[in-house]
C-alpha cells in the first residue's frame, strides 16, 4: 500500500526543502500537491519505514523511544507489586483456614472459642519454648572445631613509606690483609747522584789468551794533519729507521729521532761525548763522534722545527738506538730549538791533531 502525504504548505519548487522531505520519507510514500505526485527514492540500507517520516523529526522519535523504555520499567514494577499482593492474599487465606478449623474443633467439643484467650495461650507457649531453647543453648560449652581450609590470598598492600635512616653503627674489625697487587710500571729515573768515594783497587785479573793476529790491511794514504773533515768540508749525514742526521755543515748535523710517526729533535743538556760515540756507532760509523751543544742548524740557523722528543739522554755505550738510552721521557723537556744537540760522526779514529 502506498501512503499519500499532502503538501499543501510545502513549496515543491524549493529544491532544498524537497530534498529534506525526501531524506525522511519511506519507500512507499508519495508526495502530492494538487493533481501531481512525486515518487520518493528508496530508503538507505538498514532503515525501515518505522524509522523515518516526513512529519516526525528524529529528535522526537528518540524522545518517544525513551518514553517507551520508561513505560516498560513501570509495567515491570506493577508486575512485582501484583506478585506481592498474591503472597499476602495466600497468607490471609491460610490464617482464615486455621481459625475456621479451630472454631470447628471447639464446636465439636462443646466449648466456646475465645480468640483472645487462645492468642494469650499461644503466646505463653511460644515464650516457654523460647526460654527452654535459650537455656539449652546457654548450657552448651563451646568447643573449638577443626581448622578450616586456608582462605584465598589477599591483595598485596600498598608499599609503606621508607623509614628514617638509622645512626651509623660502630666500625667493624679490620679484615685480613689482602695479597699484594701487581707491580706497577717503572718510574722515571731520578737525577744522577754525587760521585761516591773511590773504592779500593781490585785485584789484577789473569791475562787472557792472545788473539789470532789478523792479516795486515791495505796501506792508507796520508791524512790531513788536523781533525777529520770530508772532502767537501761537511760532517756526514746518516739515517736508520728511527734516527737521522740532517742539515749537516762543517760543524755538525742535527740529530733527529722518530716517535709516533713524527720526527723530532734532542736537547743538548747532559748529552756528553760518551753519548755521541754511542749514537755514531749506532749509525754504523767506526770512529768516534763529537757533540755540539746549542747547535743552530738549517739555512736560517734557527734549529729544527716541530717536536722536541728527548732530553737528558744518558747512554751506557751498548745501545744500538737512542730510544734504548735513559732519558726524561718522550716529549718531556725544558729546552727550545736553539738548545738542540748536533753530532759530527767520523768514519775512522780522530787524527792526532784534532781538538
Care to describe what's here?
With 355 residues, the protein is α+β, with helices and mostly antiparallel strands. Helices cover 28% and strands 12% of the residues. The protein contains four helices and ten strands; from the N terminus they run E-H-E-E-H-H-E-E-E-E-H-E-E-E. The protein has helices at 15-24, 58-109, 115-139, 273-283; strands spanning 3-6, 29-33, 36-39, 238-239, 243-246, 253-259, 262-266, 289-292, 307-310, 342-345. Strands 4, 5, 6, 7, 8, 9 and 10 form a seven-stranded mixed β-sheet that branches. Strands 1-2-3 form a three-stranded mixed β-sheet, with no helix packed on it. Helix 1 links the parallel strand 1 and strand 2.
**Alpha-beta classification:** alpha+beta
Radius of gyration of CA atoms, rounded to a whole number: 65 Å
Q: How many DSSP-defined strands?
A: 10
| Cα separation of the termini | 143 Å
Give average pLDDT, whole number: 75
Fraction of residues in helix: 25-40%
Shape descriptor:
rod-shaped
The biggest sheet amounts to:
7 strands, mixed
**Low-confidence runs of at least 5 consecutive residues:** 1-12, 14-19, 24-40, 51-55, 219-231, 349-355
Q: What percent strand?
A: 5-15%
What keywords describe this structure?
single chain; 355 residues; alpha+beta; seven-stranded mixed β-sheet; rod-shaped; disordered N terminus
Amino acid at each position: 500500500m502506498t501512503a499519500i502525504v499532502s503538501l499543501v504548505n510545502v513549496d515543491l519548487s524549493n529544491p532544498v526543502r524537497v530534498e529534506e522531505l525526501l531524506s525522511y520519507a519511506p519507500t512507499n510514500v508519495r508526495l502530492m500537491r494538487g493533481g501531481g505526485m512525486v515518487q520518493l527514492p528508496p530508503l538507505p540500507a538498514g532503515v525501515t519505514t518505522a524509522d523515518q517520516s516526513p512529519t516526525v523529526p528524529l529528535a522526537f522519535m528518540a524522545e518517544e523511544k525513551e518514553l517507551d523504555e520508561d513505560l516498560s520499567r513501570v509495567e515491570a514494577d506493577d508486575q512485582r507489586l501484583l506478585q506481592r499482593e498474591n503472597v499476602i492474599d495466600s497468607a490471609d487465606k491460610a490464617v482464615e483456614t486455621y481459625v475456621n478449623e479451630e472454631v470447628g474443633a471447639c464446636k465439636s467439643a462443646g466449648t466456646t472459642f475465645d480468640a483472645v484467650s487462645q492468642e494469650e495461650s499461644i503466646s505463653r507457649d511460644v515464650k516457654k519454648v523460647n526460654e527452654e531453647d535459650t537455656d539449652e543453648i546457654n548450657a552448651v560449652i563451646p568447643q573449638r572445631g577443626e581448622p578450616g581450609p586456608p582462605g584465598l590470598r589477599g591483595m598485596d598492600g600498598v608499599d609503606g613509606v621508607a623509614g628514617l635512616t638509622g645512626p651509623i653503627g660502630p666500625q667493624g674489625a679490620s679484615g685480613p690483609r689482602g695479597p699484594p697487587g701487581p707491580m706497577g710500571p717503572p718510574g722515571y729515573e731520578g737525577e744522577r747522584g754525587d760521585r761516591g768515594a773511590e773504592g779500593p783497587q781490585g785485584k789484577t785479573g789473569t791475562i787472557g789468551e792472545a788473539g789470532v793476529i789478523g792479516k795486515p790491511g791495505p796501506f792508507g794514504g796520508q791524512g790531513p794533519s788536523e781533525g777529520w773533515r770530508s772532502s767537501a768540508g761537511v760532517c756526514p749525514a746518516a739515517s736508520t729507521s728511527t734516527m737521522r742526521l740532517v742539515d749537516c755543515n762543517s760543524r755538525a748535523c742535527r740529530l733527529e729521532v722518530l716517535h709516533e710517526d713524527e720526527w723530532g729533535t734532542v736537547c743538548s743538556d747532559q748529552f756528553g761525548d760518551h753519548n755521541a760515540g754511542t749514537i755514531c756507532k749506532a749509525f754504523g760509523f767506526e770512529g768516534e763522534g763529537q757533540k755540539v751543544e746549542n747547535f743552530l742548524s738549517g739555512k736560517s740557523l734557527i734549529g729544527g722545527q716541530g717536536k722536541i722528543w728527548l732530553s737528558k739522554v744518558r747512554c751506557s755505550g751498548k745501545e744500538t738506538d737512542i730510544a734504548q738510552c735513559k732519558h726524561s721521557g718522550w716529549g718531556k723537556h725544558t729546552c727550545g730549538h736553539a738548545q738542540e744537540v748536533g753530532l759530527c760522526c767520523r768514519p775512522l779514529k780522530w787524527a792526532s791533531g784534532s781538538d
